[in-house]
Structure formats: C-alpha cells, structure tokens
Amino acid sequence: MKKEERKRKDNIEKLSKEIEEKKKLPKEVKEKINSKVFENMIIAAIIMIYLVSLNLGMTNIPTDTYRTDLKVFSIILLIITIMIFEWGYKKDDESIWLHGVEVMVIGIITLYLISLYSIYYNTYGALILSIGIAYLIYYAIKIVIIQKRIEKEYIKSLNDIGEIIKK
User: Fold this and answer.
1) CA-CA distance, 62 to 53, in Å (whole number)?
2) Staple 29 to which of 25, 81, 102, 119, CB 3.0 to 4.6 Å?
3) Is a pLDDT exceeding 60 seen at residue 132?
4) Which helix (H) or strand (E) holds 77?
5) Is residue 130 part of a domain?
6) What distance in Å separates the CA atoms of residue 59 and residue 28, rounded to the nearest whole number?
7) Would you say 71 and 114 are in contact if contact means Cβ atoms under 8 Å apart?
8) Which residues contact 95 (CB under 8 A, 6 or more apart)?
9) Is the pLDDT of residue 77 over 80?
10) What pLDDT is attached to residue 163?
11) Could you tell me if residue 167 is inside a domain?
C-alpha cells in the first residue's frame, strides 16, 4: 500500500514539474512581449514629451503664437493619423491601426486645447498634466493586457485537447 502511495506521489510530482516547465515562457515569447512593451513605452514617452512641450510652450510663447502652434500641431497629428491608418491597412495589422487611433485622439485633444486654453487659462497646465496622467494609465493598462494576452496565447497553444478531440 505504501509503495503505491509513494508511486502516486512521485507521479503527481513529476506531472506538476512538467506542467510548471511547460508554463515557463520560452525565449521567443519573452522577446515578443518585450518588443511590444518597448514599442508602447516609446510611444507613451513620445506623447509625454509632446504634452510637456505643450506645457512649456504655454509659459514661454505668446498667446497668439501658441494658439497657432496648437492648430498646426493638430493638423500635423491628423495627417500622421491618416498615414498610420493607410500603413495599417496595407499591412493588415490591427496594432498599427490602434496606434493610429491613439494619435488621432491626441490630435483631437490638441484641437480641443485651442479653446480650453482660452477658457481655462489659469488651470491649463493642470489640464495638460491630467491628460498626460490619463495617457500613462492607459499605456500601463495596455502593456499589462498585451503581456497577459501573449502569455495566454502561448499557454493555449500548448493545450492539446483540440488535437485529442479531432482524433
């Protein structure tokens, strides 16, 4: 009886070790996660630099020039959005298209900033700061979702139940 129990425990330990080894992400999957995370961190950094430059511009540039700059920036961002959409369409890649939506939102926010600059002049810097914080939170959540989704896809690829059912 004790030998059988010992064998079962050994088998259970072996199976649990095998499961843990399969759950470990291989180097290729880790590299894929890291590249996606790095890509999104770069985009978030660019957006933060843009928002900081808007904040600095508000304090250092005359009002008329600053409003004109906001108009030019919004047009440039919307042109970049169209280019990203076209590129994503040609490559048939959803992630490129999503980046286009993100740039479009920044462009639209920049358009709104033109009127918000006049209305909320005293709290305009805090407004830009809150937009930056919202984008940081968005990108942090997005990075976590991307990481979990890639890990889930890898674990799902290890599942051989579908192959067993087909047989």
Assistant:
1) 14
2) 25
3) yes
4) helix 63-91
5) yes
6) 47
7) yes
8) 36, 88
9) yes
10) 56
11) no
Per-residue pLDDT of 31-67, as tens digits, reads: 888 899 999 999 999 999 999 999 999 889 998 999 9
Look at residue 5 and tell me if it is in a domain: no
- Cα–Cα distances in angstroms (integers) from residue 23 to residues 8, 29, 143, 154, 159, in the given order: 22, 12, 20, 9, 11
Average pLDDT of the residues of the chain: 86
Residue 105: domain span: 31-161
Q: Does 118 reside within a domain?
A: yes
In this prediction, residue 165 has a pLDDT band, given cuts at 50, 70 and 90, of low
Over pLDDT 90: what percentage of the chain? 53
- pLDDT over threshold 60, residue 81: yes
| Among 119, 116, 113, residue whose Cα is nearest residue 70 | 113
Pairwise CA distance, residues 18 & 27, whole Å:
18
DSSP one-letter string for 97-153? HHHHHHHHHHHHHHHHHHHHHHHTSTTHHHHHHHHHHHHHHHHHHHHHHHHHHHHHH
How many structural domains compose the chain?
A: 1
Residue labelled with tokens 């808007």: 54
Among candidate residues 93, 94, 103, 96, the one with its CA nearest the CA of residue 135:
103
Structure tokens belonging to residue 110: 């920049």
